[in-house]
Write a structure and sequence with these properties.
Blueprint lengths: L1 H12 L4 H15 L2 H18 L2 H18 L2 H21 L8 H23 L1
Organism: Sporosarcina newyorkensis 2681
Protein name: General stress protein
């Protein structure tokens, strides 16, 4: 009986875990495929998801993602992404010959006001 247990343990010790098998498979796949392959399977997956889910599904995952982001980031994070977004928006506006898009300052101000309202509403809901 002891020999059988030792043999079984040795067999298990020589097998790779699911995690290791998945990692190795992913590495092999990435060596054999290019960016376009991943874009294509991502597009197909997105289309399949869109066919199988409604607006409420996307609202729910967006809400959950927003809550998780808010829990993991501070005010500086939102200031930074607001600044970057404002800069990108201003660059678009500068390149589009004044087509009526809002300025970087206005975009930052509006984003900050919206975030402040959201935090105020969340804090009043918790009371």
């Amino acid at each position: 009986m002891a020999n059988r247990n030792n043999r079984d343990n040795n067999d298990n010790n020589n097998k790779m875990t699911l995690e290791e098998a998945g990692r190795k498979g992913g590495e092999a796949t990435s060596k054999n495929h290019d960016r376009e392959f991943y874009e294509e399977i991502g597009r197909k997956g997105g289309e399949a998801t869109a066919e199988n889910h409604d607006r409420e599904f996307y609202e729910e995952i967006g809400r959950k993602g927003g809550e998780a982001t808010a829990e993991n980031h501070d005010r500086e994070f939102y200031e930074e992404i607001g600044r970057k977004g404002g800069e990108a928006r201003a660059e678009q506006s500068n390149n589009s010959n004044g087509n009526g898009k809002m300025s970087q300052e206005e975009a930052g101000r509006k984003g900050g006001e919206a975030r402040a309202r959201q935090r105020k509403n969340n804090n009043s809901d918790e009371r």
